[in-house]
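Pasting as-is:
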Amino acid sequence: MDIKSLLIGGLAGLLLAGIPAGFIYSNVNRNLSDAEDEIAELQGEVATGKEDITKVRQELKEKEEDLNKRISEITGLQRDVETVGNCLTGVLEAFQEISQDNGPDALIILGRVEKDCEKSGEILEEIENLETSLDEVTQDSLELINVYDLNIKKSLPCRRVGIFYGLEALEVSNCP
């Protein structure tokens, strides 16, 4: 064997060994790139998941605060109902005593519920003020709607349209 044959054989061997190695390297490189893409995608999904969890926690916190506020309002309303109930029960008992010509006992009963009746008056006054306030807001809203409606009508060109239905005619207009 001469050196030339050994060189050719060695080169051929290297070539034959190098081709699969190149394919293997290319395949490994592609798999690595795919894995990096998947990792980046998963990291994006994790980040999105964390954002979603943060949003849900914030919504939960807001709902919990709203619920606590409503529970507090309900508790206040229950106290108000009890106060008004105590007042009315006392007044009813006092009327019963008066109907039996027992004025002194009626005065004692009224004295017991006096504070509840005063508080009941305040509660009813608050309710009336709230209703008045709501009526004013509603009236203001209606006036605002009418102003907007009038402004919209003024901004539209005046048109009259005739609609015929069989032998009948109907005229529709946005003109003043």
